[in-house]
Specification:
Length: about 350
């Protein structure tokens, strides 16, 4: 259901999950919160503060929290509502709260979210005391730098220290990284000013890709494309497991998970058949594509069907009967023949 909603509304699977979860919780477990939503005392975002913090409690505790919050919703901002719900959950379910806190600390992770104009957000889901200590340490170092260098703001110093600490190697503090950038040769040497593609992010300006390429630690791979279509040239194999050369080609061609709306970089995805090997699917670049693990497993679920359309393209049919087409974008714009060279 989450995947169906994501495709129909053109939102991420996480957004779709929250919409479905919030709707089910309001109708089944939180009648007072639903009533406040229907009266206009709160909006859906404020209601989600109640549903998300009660998602793991029993129906009995959820009813207690819902009743307790009934007089604490109208006229309050989302942060205040969240704080009150958190207080109520601890009040009515102290043992459960302690157990859930222990489990959540085991779910610590780092996430990356891309923004516009060459910026992204790198965040960490960490135990509170760890996150607070990291932030305090970076703030102390940033204030020290700020005292000597007024050309950057305190926030800029703090962000620079964050990046330096994460990328430092061998204790020398020199940042190094391995990323995948797709750029045509003429743009790379400065003859053109066309955007390049940063895997998992999208277009980046020509000046930025030249900065990345000029780093002495950058590495290079040569990709041969069809000048007429911009697609990578064909490669094939007759074995089940994709050979390394075919896997590299597919990851370079797809750049991202091929499921509509998913933008996980292809280098972190799985290479698999569109038409399965057991159904006589071929191991070649027409019938293989890159999918993240979640969407690779999804197409094997009952009611989901994927059909290859050539060169990694897919027509996906969902259990509700809706179809969605996904085709890898060309690495460069197709080149048109000069007017004089075209057949009469």
């Amino acid at each position: 259901m989450t995947e169906e909603v994501a495709l129909r509304l053109s939102v991420s699977r996480n957004q779709a999950f929250l919409l479905v979860e919030t709707s089910c919780a309001l109708v089944a477990r939180l009648p007072n919160t639903l009533a406040a939503l229907e009266k206009g005392d709160i909006d859906l975002f404020k209601a989600s503060k109640v549903t998300r913090l009660t998602r793991d409690v029993s129906d009995e505790v959820a009813a207690q929290v819902d009743e307790w919050m009934s007089l604490r919703l109208a006229g309050r901002d989302p942060s205040a509502i969240r704080s009150s719900v958190n207080h109520a959950v601890q009040k009515f379910d102290p043992d459960g709260y302690r157990d859930r806190a222990k489990k959540k600390r085991e779910l610590r992770h780092i996430s990356l979210e891309h923004d516009d104009e060459t910026m992204s957000t790198l965040s960490g889901y960490l135990p509170t005391e760890v996150a607070s200590s990291i932030y305090a340490s970076m703030s102390r170092a940033a204030r020290t730098r700020r005292a000597e260098d007024k050309s950057r703001t305190l926030d800029q110093h703090r962000a620079d220290i964050f990046g330096e600490r994460l990328l430092a190697e061998d204790g020398r503090g020199k940042p190094r990284a391995h990323i995948h950038v797709y750029v045509d040769l003429l743009t790379l040497v400065g003859v053109r000013e066309d955007p390049a593609i940063l895997a998992g992010y999208g277009p980046i300006p020509d000046w930025l890709v030249r900065e990345i390429a000029s780093d002495p630690d950058s590495t290079w791979s040569r990709l041969i494309t069809d000048p007429a279509t911009g697609q990578l040239l064909e490669a094939s194999a007759g074995t089940y497991r994709s050979p390394a050369s075919l896997a590299r080609l597919i990851k370079a061609r797809d750049r991202e998970c091929t499921h509509p709306g998913c933008h996980r970089p292809a280098e972190f995805s799985e290479i698999d058949h569109i038409t399965g090997w057991a159904r006589d699917g071929k191991t070649n670049h027409h019938n293989c594509h890159g999918n993240c693990k979640i969407h690779n497993l999804l197409k094997e679920e009952p009611g989901w069907y994927a059909e290859p359309t050539g060169n990694g393209g897919t027509t996906l049919t969902t259990p509700s009967g809706h179809t969605y087409d996904a085709t890898p974008e060309p690495l460069h714009e197709p080149r048109e023949e000069p007017e004089d060279d075209r057949p009469a």
